[in-house]
Fold this sequence. Notes:
Largest sheet of chain A: 7 strands, mixed
Low-confidence stretches of chain A: none
Low-confidence stretches of chain B: none
Number of strands of chain B: 10
Order of helices and strands of chain A: EEEHEEEEEEEEHH
CATH class of chain B: Mainly Beta
CATH topology of chain A: Metal Binding Protein, Guanine Nucleotide Exchange Factor, Chain A
Shape of chain B: globular
Number of helices of chain A: 3
Order of helices and strands of chain B: EEEHEEEEEEEHH
Number of helices of chain B: 3
Number of strands of chain A: 11
Oligomer: heterodimer
Largest sheet of chain B: 7 strands, mixed
Amino acid sequence: xxxxxxxxxxxxxxxxxIRFHAKALRENPHxxxxxxxxxxxxxxxxxxxxxxxxNLTWTRGKPAEFRSSEHVGRGFCPNCGTPLYYRYEGGKxxxxxxxAFDEPHRIPLLYQMGLEGKHPSLFHLGDxxxxxxxxxxxGDEAGAIKLTNNQHPxxxxxxxxxxxxxx
Amino acid sequence: xxxxxxxxxxxxxVRYRFSxxxxGAHxxxxxxxxxxxxxxxxPLVGARLEYFEVTRGDIAIFSSSDLVERGFCRECxxxxxxxxxxxxxxxxxxxxxxxxxxxxxxxxxxxxxxLPFVNDLGHLPDLPTTEDEDPDTAKSIRLSNxxxxxxxTAEWPLRGQ
Lengths: 167, 161
């Protein structure tokens, strides 16, 4: 599979304990609706793009991995839980969650799969009522959240202390 | 007959149950929800705390700010909950419910973070279903599937960690 001509990308988990860098992305940005991707991500689908092993560097921390079947490992941050990747055993690339990249808007989708798990409501997302931006809909909370935000910023950092999680 | 709505993480270490159907299904496009889920948005639906019960394991908590606690499974990472600290309610990720199809989103929040291609998802080219696209791989995954089934279980051995 070819690589996309979109340049380099960094990304990581919400708390910043895990960071990675991709020198290139595979030509396969896609969403998968299968029930295993839904469950692994707690979401309506997984949005994924491959990074060849030769193009991947873990720049901070190491992810934990859950073996969802004999053939597939799913990586996540052990401190904050962000789902990070889907890895097929023996595959030539690891597929990262597009939302985990610092610039997900730069990664246009090419196809969708796992259609057996697609919910009908997703066809009408553009018609679902909008309640406004975070700042407009919940101004007080948005301000307080901004002041105490523990999310890693959307760029690489030379030093970063992740907020520890609790049980 | 008492109804309940259950769910949990992929590996089954954490299971939860609502004694009342959660309401207010929505998606949130804000950058914090995107990052916490590693996805395009967070799909959430919730209820008051008295209707929510963790029936297996413990939910690990990351405080994404002083206001918000985000729960996940320490064993497999599945994002599970979103709650305001000191609030009266809890929301769960719709994909972690056993029957996500019962909770179609009714509105969308944090639209400042909406990714430009999200509304066109329904128009992307469809590949075949998982089974049709690669039957051998699908079968092989089915035979060694470590995902908790979409119903409550009396016992569940953790595998794949």
